[in-house]
Amino acid sequence: MTKYTSVFDMKGKTLDDFTNKYGDIFNPRFVDLEYYKAYYLGKYDETIHIFNYLSQHYDIQSVVYPGSFIHLAPSFAFSHVTYIDKYTHIDDFFEDADVLKYISLHKIYDENTVLEFINESYQKHSGKYNLMISSNAGPVSIECFHLLEEDGLLLVNNGHSDADNAFDNDKLTCLGYFEIKGDHKTINFIEKGKSSRSETYYLFRKL
To answer: Domains, the chain, ranges and CATH?
Structure first.
């Protein structure tokens, strides 16, 4: 059997175990809570701390996540999140009772959790949101700019150079960036400036 050593937290399982269940591990035939935990928490998800910080320092009532795949972390910090992705086989994930229970165990708010999943290309979506997330999903800051309400916040990393796109947009101002420590469990918010690390997340405000 082949031992798998990438970002997945296999918890004693082999690659064969996962491929027998999901098919292609990076293009699975279906996803569930086990798959989510193996992928995102297997490499440790520093965005959980980032979203918690944002919820505690800003008045954010509505969140949109274009190109989200099954990245649940925003729902631990925000009660109403709209996830958008045209990826197949993930519709049922956001209605899975195990997923909803998992969120309820880890959320930091008292309100009921609302998960809205839209299975379409994010360029087609309309609406206005307090916070938009761009994380390795293409030029979200350009193609979904219309989704940000006035004074809305954009959290963006430089996957597909989208942080660079945001810096080039004169209708956005950079508030700072999140400095992620080596253990991925410690973050600091640094006002203004740029980070030398490619995986940094920047926070912008729409003017």
So the answer is: 44-206 (3.40.50.150)
